[in-house]
Amino acid sequence: MHGWQSQLAQLVLVLLLAPLLSGVTRKIRSRLLRRRGPSVFQPYRDLLKLIRKEAVVADNASWLFRIAPYVIFATTWVAAALVPTFAAGLTFSAAADVIVIVALLGTARFFLALAGLDVGTSFGGIGSSREMMFASLAEPAMLLVVFTVALFAGSTQLSSISAFMAGPDVGLNISLALSLIALVIVAVAENARIPVDNPATHLELTMVHEAMILEYSGRHLAVIEAAASLKLLLYLSLIACMFTPWGTTLAGGETVAYAIGLGAYALKLLAFGFGLVVFETAIAKMRVFRVPEFLGMALMLGLLGAILLFVSRVSQ
Amino acid sequence: MTPLETDIAHLLAGSMVLVSFLLLYQDRMFALINIFALQAWVLAFSVAWQAYLQHAPHLFITALIALAFKGVFIPVALHRIVVRLGIHRSIESVVSIGPTMLFGMALVALSIVVMLPVTEAAGAFVREDLAFALSIVLLGLLMMVTRRNAVGQVIGFMSLENGLVLAATGARGMPLVVEISVAFSVLIAFIVIGMFLFRIRERFDSVDVRALDMSRGESA
Questions:
Q1: Residue A175 located in a structural domain
Q2: Distance CA A121, CA A312 (A)
Q3: Cα A202 to chain centroid, rounded
Q4: Residue B164 DSSP class
Q5: In this complex, is the C-beta atom of A304 within 8 Å of any C-beta atom belonging to chain B?
Q6: Cα B205-B207-B211 angle, rounded to 5 deg
Q7: Residue of A nearest to B12 (CA)
Q8: Within 13 Å and on the Cβ side, how many CA atoms surround A6?
Q9: Domain residue spans of chain B
Q10: How far apart (Å, rounded) are the C-alpha atoms in residues A284 and B179?
Q11: What is the pTM of this model?
Q12: Rounded Cα distance, A43 and A23, in Å
């Protein structure tokens, strides 16, 4: 396969796989709670249903409210397509910088918060303000993780980081361990998972992500839901790419190598999804004002990782 | 030493610093005691690993002492004290968690900046260990400063001592006699402090050390 072929394959793959990942995590969660749970394909059905429905827009909504879902979806999709998932050597791997991905996600967040404020309902405002409060801690933590890993691997480009991590130079390293924990915390917070936000609730006092998209319906809502599941896939792929890069197909591999790469990717997603759900079912949701402490821990771990990296650098 | 062996030693010493931060972060009594026990376990593993690397059998005894006294005995005793004092609710700290954490980070950076140039002659391994040990000591001191509750201060003191043991194992050739006597003096300090806790409570109906300030005539 050429670079552009695997790039195209990846673009389609992430889009198709994202709802399935949400479905699988929901299914596992239901089983852990001793419920049957809907089929793993339910998210696809939900999306199709929403697309066919009429989009109701509030009277005082501006053009921003209409374009925001598409901007959010586009930026998230591009970000997800940039992360090397099953194969390295994608066409855009030169642009696949971790900082670019953080910036793309930041853009999506910006538009989501604006859309929450646009109609002027109080829930949207609460959601946007909380989202921004969390983001002000989650983004620096994410960047610190990126810096630590980049210092370690000598590059901010995802494909180089992935290749370096798969190489023999990497042992057990405390900085990497701390970065991994920090990244997991950020991923949990950014995807509105349980200790921070509950994706399944519409209780006014606790919701964050759901509060911002409360006014959306029809195809707008479908696009936003798709973007949310893409974001979960993106974070899991990012963790897989940086910390467990084994099995990824190198550039110009044989067909068998691509099959192995795909299989390894599917296994990683399944394992991470399972871990996430077990964590979620074991823990209670936090009060909103505890969340900054939780995210502050991620920030601190990132900073500590960077400092300890300096120590191990000196001693080598 | 293979790179993997060094990495494991680094990992263990680094996790001790991390656990020190968890101690600073945690504000519930039982969880605090459990994390202190965790730190002692990590210390024991770290020392045992050093014993294996340095081929120094006496360090195994140090590890065993750490495990038995600080990993099991003192946490169990603290649990009992806390239950008997009836303070297993939550402990308030003087400074809130955010600034404490930042201050802790600054202390870690400081100890690295101080230790690395000073120990230039020593091996890479010792330098790292000493830098980590100094940060654990400083974090223990920070914890003693930021807690109002006497039990929290005791735990800060004990975790400070963990840092000292880590420094001693890194520095090759601390005699076993010294090690054992330090362990016992900590134990005795613990007993004395335990008795003090009950005396403080008897007199002031609380183990909040602000009560002591008031009895000295200072304003709290």
A1: no
A2: 52
A3: 22
A4: H
A5: yes
A6: 75
A7: A174
A8: 28
A9: 3-215
A10: 43
A11: 0.86
A12: 6
In a domain, residue A288? The reply is no
Cα dist. A67→A71, B165, B209 in Å?
Answer: 6, 61, 59
Interface membership of A259 toward B (CB under 8 Å): no
Torsion angles phi and psi, residue A250, rounded to 5: -80, 165
Q: How many CB pairs under 8 A join A and B?
A: 63
ipTM score assigned to the predicted complex:
0.74
Q: Which candidate, B38, B105, B104, places its Cα nearest to that of B72?
A: B38
* A242 part of a folded domain: yes
Task: Give the whole-angstrom CA distance, residue A83 versus residue A89.
Answer: 11
- The total number of structural domains in chain A stands at 1
Quick check: A159 and A90 in contact, CB under 8 A? yes
- For residue A316, give the nearest of B11, B13, B124 by CB distance: B124
Q: Touching check for A250 and chain B: CB below 8 Å? A: no
Interface of A with B in 146-175 (CB under 8 A): 171-175
Q: Is the residue at A117 inside a domain? A: yes
Q: Is B11 on the interface with A (CB under 8 A)?
A: yes
Tokens of B173: 């050739």
Identify the domain containing residue A212 by its residue range. 3-136+156-167+196-277
The whole-angstrom separation of Cα B67 and Cα B39 is 10
Largest Cα–Cα distance in chain B? 60
C-alpha–C-alpha distance, residues B214 and B208, integer Å: 11
pLDDT in single tens digits along all 316 residues of chain A: 677 888 888 899 999 999 999 999 999 999 999 999 899 999 999 999 999 999 999 888 999 999 999 999 999 999 999 998 888 777 887 888 899 999 999 999 999 999 999 988 888 999 999 999 999 999 999 999 999 999 988 888 888 888 888 887 777 788 888 999 999 999 999 998 888 887 777 776 677 888 888 889 999 999 999 999 999 999 999 999 999 888 877 766 678 888 888 899 999 999 999 999 999 999 888 888 888 888 988 998 998 888 888 777 655 5
